[in-house]
Design brief:
Largest sheet: 6 strands, mixed
Shape: elongated
Order of helices and strands: HEHHEHEHEEEHEHEHEEHHEH
CATH superfamily of the largest domain: Periplasmic binding protein-like II
Helix content: 40-55%
Number of helices: 11
CATH topology of the largest domain: D-Maltodextrin-Binding Protein, domain 2
Low-confidence stretches: 1-20
Structural class: alpha/beta
CATH class of the largest domain: Alpha Beta
Distance between the termini: 62 Å
Strand order of the largest sheet: 2-1-3-10-4-11
Strand content: 15-25%
Amino acid sequence: MKITSLLTLTLLAAGINSAAAQELVLAVNEGVTYQDGGPATERYKPLLQLISKELKQNVKLQSVDVTNFAKGLTENKFDIAFIHAAHIGLQGVKKNGYEGLVTAKGFTDYRARVLVANTSPLKTMQDLRGKKIGVPSVDSITTMMFMANLRELNFQQPEKFFTATRYQDAVPFMIDNGFVDAGVTGSASVAKAWVAKGGRVLAETKPIPVKQFLASKKLNESDKEKLKNLLLNLSENEAGRNALSKIGMTGFVPWNTQVMDEAAVRLGL
């Protein structure tokens, strides 16, 4: 009896370990400067179910901040990654063996926009030397793109003049109240509203696609292909459209290696 019980427990433990080994981790970071629409565990549930069904493995969600995302990619902790901050994702592809699968529709032309008051004497990016500049979080892709542009113009340590705010919506407030001479946003809607109320867009950076899906080298080629095809075809069926709407996406487009490599160079990665 004891031998039978021991054997049963051994087999049960082996089964649990096997199930755990088959569980995949989808790490998500949606950006540090936008407020989300509720708990990620609920919003991503329909997508997790679709991925789990397609790969025939349970997929669990892990929300990760930018700093820990970079560390996790370096240590290859995530099987699948969906990240807003393009500089972190691109670094994962370039240095950590991750493969870029797709990028989000509607976010392939993401750019940092420099806002100033209509009465501001500033006319070009060069005029920003020594000026106080309001930016989103210093970890955000928007700020990274802006800094990369300033480095191209030979600005030395431009971040010394930055005043950071968590949410991009707060950038116009900083300009209106004289806290900064100019402000930076990656939000087209924020920039549009700023112009509508009489402000100016001083300049824009070159665009970079953001919101990228990456796959770890731990995934086999067959599963990578299945995952990529699933993501590209989500907008073609009701279940997929529901999953997309829950996370605020309209669909995905294939990873463009040339565009992403150029972006990595521009960001100094």
